Tetratricopeptide repeat protein (Virgisporangium ochraceum), 285 residues
Amino acid sequence: MPHIDAVAAHIGPGHDNTDLLYLGDRAAIYRLHQGQLDPAITQFEEVLSDRRRVLGDNHPDTLTSRNNLADAYRAARRVAEAITLHEQVLSDRRRVLGDNHPDTLTSRNNLALSYRSAGRLTEAITLHEEELGDCRRVLGDDHPDTLTSRHNLALAYQAAGRMAEAITMYEQVLTDSRRVLGDDHPDALTSRHNLAYAYRAVGRVAEAIILHEEELADCRRVLGDDHPDTLTSRHNLALAYQAAGRAAEAITLYEQVLTDRRRVLGDNHPHTAFTETQLRAARAH
């Protein structure tokens, strides 16, 4: 990242170097996954502006930048903007790339995620189910994008209260992710985490705690203590402790996570605010 930033600063704005634009997009994705939402959005917007100028609106790289910016808006809880942009990108990718192109399938998945974030669950589930069917047909059952689609459909089922379907799908996706990607792949870790979260939601708290503790240990080993996914695992383990009546352990863990989220993500990140809210609720009880 320091090298990429130094090259960008040296070349300056207004260039037409497509390799540097690619690096800028990758750097913004890294920042997004590290929870650096404001810097990521700024960089996505800059790269998108330059790609439009250099490559045109319909170039696949420009479409990718628009998709990635919409993802960043969703992560920052700017859901209305995310939906508008995802809908536009999906329409353009269908026109430019075709319905069966992997990027078009990705756009459909990401639009469904934004619908879920906005509470438009029926639309989200319908779109996820359609997109999953096409992923299986175009990419195959074991393609990582198909596994992601199955996982995201399970998320939508869970949000809609269809817990039995969600848990069954989580369990199947976890088994297949371990087989295809390996136990330590970030997607496999995410599947374990969300399965544990679903177990807690239906009262299977002891199973949830065991799975959360195992997944947290692996997150720390694979991703590091300060990775946003590790912080999320610690937060949700605290939720499970709280559900099990282990209030003191939950409060201690919330306090630690809040300190680390403030340091890593900043005071204004949505995840920081969520931990602060849960800590207050745990103390009140």
Residues 37-55 form the longest helix (19 residues). The CA atoms of residues 216 and 233 lie 6 Å apart.
